[in-house]
Design a protein that fits this description.
Elements (H helix, E strand, L loop, with lengths): L3 H4 L1 H16 L1 E2 L9 H7 L10 E2 L2 E2 L5 H18 L3 E3 L5 H12 L5 E5 L15 H5 L1 E5 L10 H11 L3 E4 L10 H11 L2 E5 L4 H5 L12 E5 L10 E5 L4 H12 L5 H14 L2 H20 L3 H4 L4 E2 L8 E5 L7 H10 L2 E2 L1 E3 L13 E5 L1 H5 L4 H17 L5 H14 L11
Parallel strand pairs: 1-13, 5-6, 5-7, 7-8, 8-9
Antiparallel strand pairs: 2-3, 4-10, 9-10, 11-12, 12-15, 14-15
The chain binds pyridoxal-5'-phosphate.
Keywords: Amino-acid biosynthesis, Cytoplasm, Methyltransferase, One-carbon metabolism, Pyridoxal phosphate, Transferase
Catalytic activity: (6R)-5,10-methylene-5,6,7,8-tetrahydrofolate + glycine + H2O = (6S)-5,6,7,8-tetrahydrofolate + L-serine
GO biological process, one term: tetrahydrofolate interconversion
Length: 421
């Protein structure tokens, strides 16, 4: 029972190396965040030892009296945070939450209609190589080719053509707010259920800074680890009428024993998200994305044929459009990595380049808000990114990296933590 430094120095050294990587660089992958120390502790706790198949009060294992309380608290906090009738906090991940939603709402072979992957949708929204595209008849809608926005008229037209049993809202790479009310009306018009996967914007919804899909959707799924800043995992909210079906779709439908340590960490994260400080953090996230959008549309960047999809953002990310630029997404990602900033390349709608290089970069501001960034720091990092993209191969990477390091030092991640064990 020695601590990890002695029991497994090889892995211990890598944990420390990753801690340093996170502390020294600046994280701008839109789907990532930093959990609080309390979430880290809950997730690294003895609850990992416990089997608890079933639900609180109805388990298939003994010794569940403590974890029952943990799961009940997590469920109640999720319900109260989002004003939902029902919450299931057992899904191990966003993809598994989504698999359970399909299983609960429709039958294999039924038709589903979601946002296309290359227009910002997620793999689990009906992509051919995913279970959702293999077991269901997956149809997709794209963004409006002129505005690059999700357009209810386009969804309605497609829904009338393909008659889906399920319409999917939510996205992985899209910088605007969808009209949930209009989407629900379309679902009603064609007799479909309406499901929203709010994985990306769950934190913004919790803070009241993004419209909530909960009043409109039959079911809402989410991850806990993006803007919400919880442990890597999923959860599901729904109207009471779907409770039984969703419970059995998660367990025993998709999963065995729940990860009770992760459920404890989710409870902690839901608790954090209900506090006024969280709202402040989400506001800084949104402000940071707007600052970034403004800088990336300045003349020096524009001169390189670089623009932003939809000309701005309402959420925690911007989508850089490189279709008219010499630089591709891979080159942009690598250039920013050399400056100490982690982002990911992404296809953009109507992308002429293959997905392996892509013509977009997705840049998010949530993780830096968790690090404490406010307006002055977002202005500085936005200028570093703008200057780098405008200069391309000629960028003074060393000077830009020095500016990133200064910000990272002024806003330390996990101050006082220099080892993971
Ligand atoms: N749903 C959306 C909209 C996502 O963006 C993601 C992750 O990128 C997922 C689901 C899947 O979550 P996970 O990676 O936890 O399976």
């Amino acid at each position: 029972n020695a601590p990890i430094a002695q029991a497994d120095p090889e892995i211990a050294a890598l944990l420390d190396a990753e801690l340093r990587r996170q502390q020294e660089g600046l994280e701008m992958i839109a789907s990532e965040n930093f959990v609080t120390r309390a979430v880290l502790q809950a997730q690294g706790s003895v609850l990992t030892n416990k089997y608890a198949e079933g639900y609180p009060g109805h388990r298939y294992y003994g010794g569940c009296e403590v974890v029952d309380q943990v799961e009940t608290i997590a469920r109640n906090r999720a319900r109260s945070l989002y004003g939902a009738d029902y919450a299931n906090v057992q899904p191990h991940s966003g993809a598994q939450a989504n698999a359970a939603v399909y299983q609960a709402l429709i039958k294999p072979g039924d038709t589903v209609l979601g946002l296309a992957l290359d227009h910002g949708g997620h793999l689990t929204h009906g992509t051919k190589m995913n279970f959702s595209g293999k077991f269901y008849n997956a149809e997709s809608y794209g963004v409006n080719p002129e505005t690059f926005r999700i357009d209810p008229d386009i969804i309605r037209e497609k829904a009338k053509e393909v008659h889906p049993q399920l319409i999917i809202g939510g996205w992985s790479a899209y910088p605007r707010i969808e009209d949930f009310k209009a989407m629900k009306e379309i679902a009603d018009e064609v007799g479909a259920k309406f499901w929203v996967d709010m994985a990306h914007f769950a934190g913004l919804v919790a803070a009241g800074l993004h419209p909530s899909p909960v009043p409109y959707a039959d079911v809402v799924s989410s991850t806990a680890h993006k803007t919400l800043g919880g442990p890597r995992s999923g959860f599901i909210l729904a109207k009471e009428e779907y409770a039984k079906k969703l419970n059995s779709a998660v367990f025993p439908g998709q999963q065995g024993g729940p990860l009770m340590h992760v459920i404890a960490a989710k409870a902690v994260a839901f608790g954090v998200a209900a506090k006024p400080e969280f709202k402040d953090r989400m506001q800084r996230t949104l402000d940071g994305a707007k600052i970034l959008a403004e800088r990336l549309q300045a003349e020096d960047v524009k001169a390189q044929g670089i623009s932003l999809l939809t000309g701005g953002t309402d959420v925690h990310l911007v989508m850089v459009d490189l279709r008219n630029s010499e630089m591709d997404g891979k080159q942009g990602e690598d250039l920013l990595a050399q400056c100490g900033i982690t982002v990911n390349r992404n296809t953009v709608p109507f992308d002429p380049r293959p997905a392996s290089v892509a013509s977009g970069i997705r840049i998010g501001t949530a993780a830096l808000a968790s690090r404490g960034f406010g307006e002055p720091q977002y202005r500085e990092i936005a200028d570093v990114i703008g200057t780098a993209l405008a200069a391309g191969k000629a960028a003074d990477v060393e000077a830009l990296h020095a500016r990133v390091t200064k910000l990272a030092q002024e806003f330390p991640l996990y101050p006082g933590l220099d080892q993971t064990h």
